[in-house]
Specification:
1 helix; 55 residues; 87% helix; mainly alpha
Length: 55
């Protein structure tokens, strides 16, 4: 192998890891936001059930 081929391998590995980490963080944040929104909706629904009918 020539030196240029090692450079391409390094670039692919480096950017592959960087992009993979970014995608993983995006998926993790998306899951967290969905969970937080569901918890908030559940709290609001429970609060509505606890209120008297006239309010």
């Amino acid at each position: 192998m020539h030196g240029g081929e090692y450079g391409w391998i390094e670039l692919v590995l480096f950017y592959g890891i960087a992009i993979g980490f970014g995608v993983w963080q995006w998926v993790k944040m998306d899951r967290m936001l969905k969970k937080t929104r569901a918890e908030k909706a559940a709290k609001e629904a429970a609060a509505k059930e606890d209120r008297p009918a006239g309010m």
